[in-house]
Amino acid sequence: AQSVTQLGSHVSVSEGALVLLRCNYSSSVPPYLFWYVQYPNQGLQLLLKYTSAATLVKGINGFEAEFKKSETSFHLTKPSAHMSDAAEYFCAVSDGAGYSTLTFGKGTMLLVSP
Amino acid sequence: DGGITQSPKYLFRKEGQNVTLSCEQNLNHDAMYWYRQDPGQGLRLIYYSQIVNDFQKGDIAEGYSVSREKKESFPLTVTSAQKNPTAFYLCASSATGTGVTEAFFGQGTRLTVV
Lengths: 114, 114
Fold this sequence. Notes:
The complex is a heterodimer of chains A (about 110) and B (about 110). With about 110 residues, chain A is mostly beta strands. In chain A, about 0% of the residues lie in helices and about 55% in strands. In chain A, strands 2, 4, 5, 9, 10 and 11 form a 6-stranded mixed sheet that branches. In chain A, strands 1-3-8-7-6 form a 5-stranded antiparallel sheet, with no helix packed on it. The model of chain A has no long low-confidence stretch (mean pLDDT about 90). Chain B has no helices and 11 strands. In chain B, strands 2, 4, 5, 6, 9, 10 and 11 form a 7-stranded mixed sheet that branches. Chain B has a 4-stranded antiparallel sheet with strand order 1-3-8-7, with no helix packed on it. The interface between A and B is medium-sized, with 27 and 34 residues.
């Protein structure tokens, strides 16, 4: 069985500061990993995905994530936070290629202060 | 524009009633999914379908039913057997194949029991 742990239900940063959202996964097979963002009362939008092609994955809106197999981690970072980054972020793991059901973490709410 | 349309955006249900949530996609995806989101719980899989006329239970299928009569449509019925139906419901779809395919999400339906 797969699982995802997101450390910290809330993370607060100042505008312009580094954003670091943590995600650790458990998987019995090579994982496919995703980060999604959700704005209030909206659906989820894909930020980036890891597909084993490269360990450092760049996504939209300046976000990136690094896959570290030894640490079973896939942390999301952004060098400089913007007010518009305030949202909830979900890390998810897939059970395989092709069609895929996702196992989600519980989410991390990012708060950005001026 | 291609995408996933969920309706209605808000739905109110009386105790003991069945209600049906609509999900339509024009992305030509074979696979469709229903997730339930509760505050602080992330997303949990209710049902999924890889192909027309076939579907499988997810982690929390009790009290829910689905149908997949058309490729474009995957309605979810919340039955009176679901004891705690108040939640945000998200529909998603994805392509199938050999590569890693991400899920695309609709805007969600917020169901409230009154």
